[in-house]
Amino acid sequence: MTRNTLRIFSGNAHPELAKEIAEILKVPMGRSTTTIFPDSETYITIDEVVRDQDIFIVQPCSAPVNEHLMELMLYLDAFRRASANSVSVLIPYFPYARQDRMAKGREAISARVVANMLETMGADRVIYMDIHNTAIQGFFNIPVDPPSAIPVLSSYFKKERFKNYVIVSPDVGRADVAGKYAEQTGLPLVVMHKRRDSATETHTTHVVGDIRGKSPIIIDDLMASGSVMLQLDALYDAGAVGKAYFAVTHPVLLPTAIEYLNNDDRIEKLVVTNTIHIPLEKRVPKLEILSIAPLLAKIIDRIYHGKSLSDLLVLT
């Protein structure tokens, strides 16, 4: 069967990831240009013919979130106007994912707004990783593929030197995800319970599971302020020993997170993936970066050839 040509394009958010994916697939990178005008407007052009081609555009919407999101919308419009056969959006870091419901009256459900925008602008398929709330998939009326970085991160800890470690969920809400890590690494599971003191402050009330004499691997979907590192006190008070590791898919890493990481001698490594471009100033010695490009390349290849993705999706 004759297939339309497969093309990989990238916005400005993370061209390195797109290039790595294209190299694995042995597909040349699509040529396009993004220009930011002096008045801050974004202007994009597709610099080659894409008529009847199957396009995959890589654009995680990390900071500056709105700039990268708007750039993605303009790319979708340009591909549609250029008569692309299909446009699939690889958005490893999905923006506004934590604004997924109304916690009080008169709030916007921003994640739903993003979903509507992607559909309205002509996306045929959306692929994201380790979203904060898996129910966001239901905001879409188009195919959504939610692969997880859990297998990539878990493989790092499948080593003899981690046999005395336990997987730690930082709260009850992450327990299902932590359970997947425990299954894939063969390590025990511990869950921390937190109480919210205010809109911005929480504290750990107790630790469920036996961590005495064990070292912790604390998992989470993303790390922004790094406040989860402050929960180490509760783990060591409960009997944890040795050096701690953190395993996080999306390394947002605000300045406070880098400060906590550098200044806490109990932390051995923060292991993350490259779903987000990590600038040089954040690439501190304790940061270990694993690539998700091979996984995303495999997903693109299967979608393009009409094959199942079931074994690549870790549903929680």
UniProtKB/TrEMBL annotation:
Q: Does the keyword Kinase apply?
A: yes
Top enzyme class of this protein? Answer: transferase
Q: Which GO terms describe its biological process?
A: 5-phosphoribose 1-diphosphate biosynthetic process; purine nucleotide biosynthetic process
Recorded hits in SUPFAM superfamilies, A to Z, give: PRTase-like (SSF53271)
InterPro entries in the record, alphabetically?
Pribosyltran_N, PRTase-like, PRTase_dom, Rib-P_diPkinase
**Its GO CC terms?**
cytoplasm; ribose phosphate diphosphokinase complex
- Out of the domains of life, which is the source? Bacteria
- Reaction(s) catalysed by this chain's protein: D-ribose 5-phosphate + ATP = 5-phospho-alpha-D-ribose 1-diphosphate + AMP + H(+)
Function (record text) = Involved in the biosynthesis of the central metabolite phospho-alpha-D-ribosyl-1-pyrophosphate (PRPP) via the transfer of pyrophosphoryl group from ATP to 1-hydroxyl of ribose-5-phosphate (Rib-5-P).
Name assigned to this protein: Ribose-phosphate pyrophosphokinase
Organism in which the protein naturally occurs:
Candidatus Brevifilum fermentans
Gene, per the UniProt record: prs
